[in-house]
Amino acid sequence: MRDIDHDLIARRAAPVPRYTSYPTAPNFAASVGADDYVALLEGVRDTSSLSLYLHIPYCHELCWYCGCNTKAVKRYEPVARYVATLEREIGMVAAHMTGPRKVTSIHWGGGSPNVLSAAHIRSLADRVRARFEIAGGAEIAVEIDPRTLSVPQVHAFTDTGVNRVSFGVQDFDPAVQAAINRMQPFDMTRRAVDLFRDRGVAAINLDLVYGLPHQTLATAERTLHQVLRLSPDRIAAFGYAHLPSRLKHQRLIETRTLAGPVERFQLSKLIAQTLTGAGYVQIGLDHFAQPSDPLASRQVVRNFQGYTTDQATGLIGPGASAIGRIGDTYFQNATPAGEYIACIDAGRLATARGLKLDAEDRLRGFVIERLMCDLQFPGQELNSLFGAAAEPVRREAQALLAGDSDGLVERAPGGFRVTDRGRPFIRSWCARFDSYLQPGTSRHAIGV
Ligand SMILES: C[S@@+](CC[C@H](N)C(=O)[O-])C[C@H]1O[C@@H](n2cnc3c(N)ncnc32)[C@H](O)[C@@H]1O
Ligand code: SF4
């Protein structure tokens, strides 16, 4: 790989958010609470279509790199209690909604939704169906840990309508797997994929992570070839977010075994070259889709799960730490499962924080989302959507273009577009439009 500019990477590797929302979740505040959530739920009208995100914050064991809101559980009892609470919350939320509750997309995320017993998967899905109207053709997706998947769980998910499955893989190299506490041989993943395919689920996603301990270009290349043997429809290749000061279990990973910014850049390039070479279309920063997948042909948007084609106008997020959005307001439930359960047990919704977007947030959020999805400053749409109010942001875009001497952005109708060379740094471009970002913050991981 000859075109590596070490100086450029060093300058661009500053910590920046992943921009799964704008403003990002660390900016949510306790000024938004359960009463605001209730008022907005009551206002949801006929034309609204909803997306439902069900959060399961448990796993059998923790992977040492994990940055998700989850906890290892050895006994089933806390999980059973959590499911009962989740079912109760779903009922409470639905009771506040007087209009039709039409759901066009459901996502079971975590943690690992397949910590749930088959019986609980069925009862939770039944509860959702009893309280919401699931639109024909709705996407029902689940995140699965292949290491702990049972046949009854597969039957429960597919019987209740799951039609897209994301499997955690990260890396197939045994030395990398040992260093992240996640032993998962290739055949184990292949079995999990086949179990769902045999039950008619055609949409298969695999998650990879680059920048993990002991990963090299050679190990990554082998992993990619194994991934391609499974022909997933989508592949997400996330840069490892290493935040040991916040996440204690990440301290079990020795920092000296991690790739530096240049190696991370090389790994991300290898992934993009290998997957596009195999016919995948690169979407935004870190997703790849087969040309026949809707992600490659439809308007892509960004949400908390990454890139999606979900066009729902509202997001309901039952579960501890889950985030929802209605209209211009984000809501997030209490993160500790105990606190979440205590609220619901007391008959109160568990909203702990949130944020009501103002006009400037909407404008900057639109720019950041389009940059993350299309790699293009949306100058033309800004006129019709925001008029003269967009002028300061337009000037910032001009200054950004004028200040780039590295060939990372180029002039395009409406402003600028990010070049292929600039793509690995999209989050840094977005950060230039983020008015909340504190320079030098330790909340975010490295930007390549
Ligand atoms: C909820 S997990 C997927 C389902 C299941 N729990 C599993 O791991 O198999 C979501 C994904 O987030 C990614 N991820 C987790 N921690 C990360 C981190 N620190 N940095 C980057 N990606 C991470 C991994 O690719 C993981 O598969
Ligand atoms: S990566 Fe997945 S399985 Fe591993 S700890 Fe995180 S949520 Fe659990």
Written description of the protein model:
- The structure is a single chain.
- The protein has two domains: about 100 residues, Arc Repressor Mutant, subunit A (Orthogonal Bundle); about 300 residues, pyruvate-formate lyase- activating enzyme (Alpha-Beta Horseshoe).
- It is built from 15 helices and 18 strands.
- About 35% of the residues lie in helices and about 20% in strands.
- Helix 4 packs parallel to helix 5.
- Strand 4, helix 4 and strand 5 form a beta-alpha-beta unit.
- Strands 9-10-8-7-6-5-4-1-13 form a nine-stranded mixed sheet. The chain has a three-stranded antiparallel sheet with strand order 14-15-16, with helices on one face. A two-stranded parallel ribbon has the order 2-3.
- The mean pLDDT is about 95.
- With about 450 residues, the chain is of the alpha/beta class.
- The structure holds S-adenosylmethionine (SAM) and iron/sulfur cluster.
- The site of S-adenosylmethionine (SAM) has 18 residues, from strand 4, strand 6 and strand 7.
Which key features would you list for this structure?
448 residues; alpha/beta; Arc Repressor Mutant, subunit A; pyruvate-formate lyase- activating enzyme; 2 domains; 36% helix; globular; binds S-adenosylmethionine; binds iron/sulfur cluster
